[in-house]
Amino acid sequence: MAKIIFIEHSGATHEVEAKTGLSVMEAAVKNNVPGIDADCGGACACATCHVYVDAAWLDKTGKPSAMEESMLDFAENVESNSRLSCQIKVSDALDGLTVRLPESQH
Amino acid sequence: MIEREPRVLARVACEELSSFFQDYHTQKGVTFEVNAQVLGFVGANGKVGGVQLGDGRTLPCDAALVGIGALPHESLARLAGCACNHGIVVDQATRTSVPGIHAIGDCTQRPLPLYGLSGRLESVPNALEQAKQVASLLCGRPAPAPETPWFWSDQYDIKLQIAGIPHHAVTRILRGDPAQAKFAVFHLDAENRVQAVEAINAAPEFMAGRLLVGNRKPVAPEKLRDTSVSMKEVAA
Q1: Contacts of residue B222, Cβ cutoff 8 Å, sequence gap at least 6
Q2: Across the interface, do B125 and A39 touch by the CB < 8 Å criterion?
Q3: What is the DSSP letter of B179?
Q4: pLDDT for B93-123, tens place per residue?
Q5: Element (H, E) at B208
Q6: Chain A within 8 Å of B146 (Cβ-Cβ)?
Q7: For the ranges A93-97, B8-12, B133-137, B189-193, which has the lowest average pLDDT?
Q8: B125 contacts in A (CB within 8 Å)?
Q9: What is the CATH number of domain A2-100?
Q10: CB contact under 8 A, A74 and B128
């Protein structure tokens, strides 16, 4: 289990208890956190689950795969700490993970 | 795999993609029978034992997975008085011909504004697009912009992503290398606008291609063909 903190573009904050093994995207969607569309359901096929990982968590979340990077390349407002949240797996090590959401996913 | 048509995926993909998938699956040990008609099944004691083909052969089997397509289920819509024509007819906002009744998803015959046609789209993205349309309408919000149809399929380590439908396409451009399992086929109309793109492990080609299908900007075919030119540059 891990507590994940989602901060919307507006500043509205959502704290979610996420099960180990789910993706960060699934934790958001299952808990009705707005701002993550996840059109393809987690297949790394749509780039609409884009999040910004807080600096303190970059090491623990790791780097994106080549496929994820290719998809991210075409998302909007991509920064160096951008990730597709369907590719980040929840684990105990990510307890307290904070991610910020873009203004829109499309 | 028993296929009625001369090639697999004949309904949804171009010949280059059919060949690629047939070769890939064959390497994994799958046997294909194309141009093959299935007459029925044989078996005993409630268990299937074989598939009868039109050419007289019976292929023995322990199990049969049947994936022969779907027809739209119109009976409820017809009972309600909704116009149906190869699906429940709806407009871009998902309205049927009966005020107050909406339909979304695989069963709808819907406008394809990018192509000036209508059609049925059996896909998750289509269902999501139409869901957002009807939700916006019911909540009194402005209608979302029409989306470019797209599809995906994961097979082994192959990610297939398709954007658009190759209506009005007159040219096919191959970008990348099928032998490396990393390529895309672009379908261009007479003005060199991308009507559709089929991408295999080629996310940039899919993402840029989908943008191009939607914004209808012409491309330079020679740049498209040249993998040393990035898709961002092609789409600029």
Answers
A1: none
A2: yes
A3: G
A4: 999 999 999 999 999 999 999 999 999 999 9
A5: helix B203-215
A6: no
A7: B8-12
A8: 39-40, 46
A9: 3.10.20.30
A10: no
